[in-house]
Design goal:
Belongs to the HAUS1 family. This is HAUS augmin-like complex subunit 1. It holds the Pfam family HAUS1. With 295 residues, the protein is mainly α. The chain is 80% helix and 0% strand. Among the domains are: 15-100, no CATH class; 258-294.
């Protein structure tokens, strides 16, 4: 074993406790001697001394506690041996020594002892066995109740799992159907888009035609205030003017069959022109009066 005086101690550092260093050295020597080895060389620092002193304190406390427990167990073992010797003497005195018992009796006693050890009882009295069995029965009832609860919960979870699997299967089937319908829906959407483009073009065309018709009606003096009755009245005036102008037109057509007399023809034509101009003027006055009345 190496000399402990060879261990280097940094005396220049503050915080070192010589008492703690001595206790640590003594503890290290005792621990390494117990296994037949020398204490290795290392530098004693504040941190290492503190850590080793803590380990030494814990080890000594545990060693002391183990010594107390070992002493108690040795004392109990001595008492159990003395009691076993006394019971053996009593059994021999009454002729119940183990050597004199039949094999089946020894086997029965060993079974009783094993059962007592299994039930964790200190004696083999009937009351102790009954209490132990009752305790085991209670534990068994508790375990069975817990097992029933677990089985019930497992059944509920199994039911939930089956429902979840069924729901998942339904959702997968629905997803497959939707994926199959995507192509059809896309084709229908493209058809609708094409129709929408055509309808927008038609809408622009109809709006342009409506604007043109509206401008045309404005040019001829038609407004939205003219009612159907006024149009019927104007149509009746037109028919009356046609009745008045028809004889004149017929007369003019009859002149085409007359012999060519330039003077008479000129007079007749001039007369008919005046009559036709008067009829047109009358028609215009009637139309203007109808429009003025509607406004």
């Amino acid at each position: 074993m190496s000399d402990l005086g060879d261990h280097s101690v940094n005396e220049g550092k503050s915080g070192f406790d010589s008492t703690r260093i001595a206790e640590v050295k003594a503890w290290l020597v005792s621990q390494f001697e117990s296994v037949g080895k020398d204490v290795p060389d290392f530098e004693y620092t504040t941190r290492s001394i503190s850590h080793l002193h803590s380990l030494a304190s814990i080890s000594q406390a545990k060693t002391q506690a183990a010594g107390i427990v070992a002493s108690d167990l040795r004392q109990k073992a001595m008492e159990y041996r003395s009691q076993a010797a006394r019971i053996r003497e009593i059994l021999q005195s009454v002729g119940l020594a183990q050597e004199g018992l039949p094999p089946n009796a020894v086997t029965s006693v060993q079974v009783v002892a094993n059962v007592a050890n299994l039930l964790n009882i200190r004696d083999t009295e009937m009351s102790s066995f009954l209490v132990a069995m009752a305790d085991i029965s209670l534990r068994k009832s508790g375990v069975e109740e817990k097992r029933a609860n677990v089985q019930k919960e497992s059944k509920v979870l199994l039911d939930y799992t089956r429902k979840a699997i069924s729901r998942l299967t339904y959702l997968k089937r629905t997803l497959g159907q939707l994926e199959d319908d995507v192509a059809t829906c896309e084709g229908q959407m493209n058809h609708w888009k094409t129709n929408l483009t055509i309808m927008l073009s038609k809408e622009r065309q109809y709006l342009q035609q409506f604007s043109n018709y509206k401008a045309l009606l404005n040019r001829v003096g038609y407004t939205s205030d003219i009612s159907h009755g006024e149009l019927v009245e104007m149509d009746e005036h037109r028919k009356e003017l046609e009745k008045k102008t028809k004889p004149i037109m017929d007369t003019l057509r009859s002149y085409q069959d007359l012999p060519p007399d330039k003077a008479l023809a000129a007079l007749a034509i001039e007369e008919k022109r005046r009559q036709y101009a008067a009829a047109e003027k009358y028609l215009e006055e009637v139309l203007h009066s109808a429009l003025a009345t509607s406004e």
